[in-house]
Amino acid sequence: MVVAGLLTGLAALAFPFAPVVQPTVTYHWPSSPTDPEAAAIPLMPYQPISLTASVSCSAARRLAQAGGAGEHVLLSTTPLRVDPSAHPLPGLRVAVVNGRLAVSSAGVDLGSWPVPAGSDCSWTFTSGVDRTELRMAEVVLAVREGDLRPNVIGAFTELPDATGLDLRLVTDTRFSTTIGPLKLSIAVLGVASLLVLLVALAYTDRAVRGRRTGPRAPGERRWRPGAVDVVLAAVLGLWWVIGPITVDDGYISGIVRSRGSNGFIGNVYRWLNAPEEPFSWFYELYYWWSLVSPSTVWMRLPSTLLGLVCWALLSRHLLPRLGRPCAGVRGRWTAAAVFALWWLPFNLGLRPEPWVAVGALAVYVTVERTVATGRVLPLAAALMLAGVTTLVTPTGLLAFAPILAAAGPLVRRLRERSDLHRLPLAVALLAAPASATLLVFANQSLAAVLESVRVRTVISGRPAWYAEYERYALLLDPHDIQGSLARRAPVLLTLLAVAGASWALTRRERRDVAGGPARRLVVGFVLALAAMTLSPTKFTHHFGGLAGLGAGVLVLAVLTWSRAGLRARSGLGRPAIAGLAGVTVVGALVLRGLNTWAYVSNYGLTWSTNSPHLGPVRLAEAVLGLGAVLVVGLAGAVVWRRATDRPEPTLPRWVPAPAGPALVLVIAVVALEVLGFVRVSAARPDTYTLASDAVRTLTGSSCGLQSDLSVETDPAAGTLPQAVGPAGAAEPAMPVVPVDVGGPVLPGVPIPSTGVTPWYVLDEAQREAVLPVVVTLAGATAPGDSIGLDFGSGGQVVARSMLAPATTMPRDQRVMAPPGADTVRIAINAPESTTGAGTGRRAAVSLPRVPRLTPMTAVLPPGSTAVLDWPVAFLFPCLRPEPLPLGTAGLPRWRVAPPPEDPSAEITYTPAFGGPFAGPRLLVTELRMATYLRGEPLREPAQLLRWIPVVPLEEPTPHVTTTSVPGWRADGHTRVPEVDPVPG
């Protein structure tokens, strides 16, 4: 056992330092000096490992003579013309300025020198992670110590003939590594020695006689499914099909699906595509799972299966350990409701919390096995599970909480084992969790993982551990999706349950509850909450990792605060009143939340914009008022009895014990969640829902949301004709101006004016309320501006629809025509103070049109490649994510973006966030194509953007070789623009 433990530990220690196979990728430009074409080489990260550029004096003279005075660019690694809406990146710029050669790198000016006349010479620029210099022949003209590498988007010149120019660079491929032969051998040795260690521990445990870990009814078969299991499995199965997506399903889907083309699990949306290590092993499982199908229904199946595993651990192991009432029929039905309350809002989808919930509960179960039996193998398994769970996500650290909560009993049990020696035992228990490192560094080196962690630390200002209150502030924020009703209910009820269960476990009479396991469960849950303070982010979805332990605590509290449980301890007086007061406050807080969910899952839901109510009365206020009256009345009766020396009154039969209202709230919230999505799925059969997507996938083929979207490829094709006759005139006449509608330019009218346009004839589809009337507002409107659509019949206004204020970006406004209308016009009323000359306003609105639509699957056929922005990536399984291969970013032709009002995807194109596609964005202009949802044409759940190169671009072929590098080798630090300092 000592040898196996030492080998396991040594393998875990050596594995990160072992050599990995790393590609060396070199680019050379120009490929044809006599016919140069701008080259697209967008690097990711933005700087190369090394770059060498040479410029001949003759090339500089040719450009100076051809261009005359001013600045003329000989060589640049960033585009000479860019889209103004893109974020700039400073690169290498070699230019001739008034007869002098000027050189700058990463925004730092290196100086200028005269161009020699008639001599055959050249300048050579070299830049690496430690030094940047410019020389002519053997003379060093400029040198800078430190990292001054330029950002590289490509190669560009104003020379018609690139003779005398040469650019060579080596990309940064530190993350694109694979396991080497020695590293693979160490992994095999580590796994083999771990298996031997576990077998040795099992052999030593033979001396321990078996003991029961919980009560069992006569004739009970623990693993036989019962009615409660069937019901819960049905709920989880239904939720799998109809349930909501999480805010990060698209994020994780994009990361996972890009693994094949990128070669590693990198963050393709920010952080310079740094690998997700050390928290990524479950992403690898998702990747192999996605190879079967990337559809929503298939990708959400693992979380549903994890829910069944978690329920099995809870119902078959945790509940019996707490005592007979928890393991009985009532306890199981209560546990099913409570488990659904925890699992449904947090743990359907691709986020890591389901894995954490199962891991933490499995740790508790195995720890209790050691406490009950004295066996060591379960403790070693618990340590392994805790280590593996921690490497799922930083929140996974809470898996060690059950071990800490049971530290005292564990030490006592191990000391009772006279057959165990301390050294072998210590080696085994240290080697077990250390073996988890084999999952972290399978393809990455130690230096790469450390650099990945550094990049994340540099880019995002993460809150400190003592800012944990921010998580609970979000939970109680009624205007944030993180404080939704469904998320509040399990967390707030369980926090109340911690107080209630702690009070119950301090009473002397605990005949119905196993005090030791119950105390360890409550303490473990509290320690898990404390462990969450170390999480680098403070989002409420992390509470999903507590689903197993939290459900156990809440079941324990419900059963101990029932009428029977309270009577067994201290009567039904003051404790029951205190419990009712707590349930009243928590119930009001829960019902004050909104029934809101992420993205398309929120479409059609009741109470998604207002808290639950019956008519004008909010349920939260009703519960608080009625509960306060009841609690105050009961408390007054107790005070009166005590003042008159009478016995303290018991709870009247018509007043429920605290467990009753709490359980009613649990069931009500679960019913609201499930039935709400059942209603939405049934009430919206002609448009997209998660349920319809799942059914289509299971019965045939589906391209997700893409199958339900149509695209307006040419806005000009739908311009409405002007009505003829007297109705076609407008008084007063308004000037016609061009309006940018997201790339195309359409005729429109300026908003800083007052008047109406002529009447335009509605299309038949608009008169039948199949398609909306569409106008595009561009530019910011001023306060007081009034823009509306007048709908008419026979030249008379029958209805007016006001348009929302405009921002600086073009924004479509869609309005359905009322019944009976056959014409439409624009009516504008702007205050006089904003219509005069010199106001500087440029707002305008395009003339009305009908969208001419093409199915999105025809515009982007299945299998097409596009940048899939993270909010929407999960819903487009037929499109392939744009790759980020070998230290570069691809040059996309399409981008699928979230709705116009959602700016969250911009991190992917922002250098300060390490956006991987910030470089390609500089090479193109965006042409916006509006989308329309089948059955609900007023909705635009996603945008389609076409990327058109500003200038013709070639894509050079790289030269690729491989080499073996040690795990500690680091090629300097990747530099984040606007964040990392650049040496001056």
Describe this structure in words.
The protein is built from 30 helices and 34 strands. It is α+β, with helices and mostly antiparallel strands and 984 residues long. The protein folds into three domains: 20-170, arabinofuranosyltransferase like domain (Jelly Rolls); 208-215 and 225-639, no CATH class; 714-851, EmbC, C-terminal domain, subdomain 2 (Jelly Rolls, Sandwich). Helix 4 runs parallel beside helix 11, helix 11 crosses helix 26 and helix 12 runs antiparallel to helix 13. Mean pLDDT is 87; it is low at 836-840. The chain crosses the membrane at residues 184-203, 223-242, 297-319, 331-350, 379-411, 423-442, 485-506, 518-537, 543-564, 576-599, 619-640, 661-682. Pfam families: Arabino_trans_C, Arabino_trans_N, Arabinose_trans.
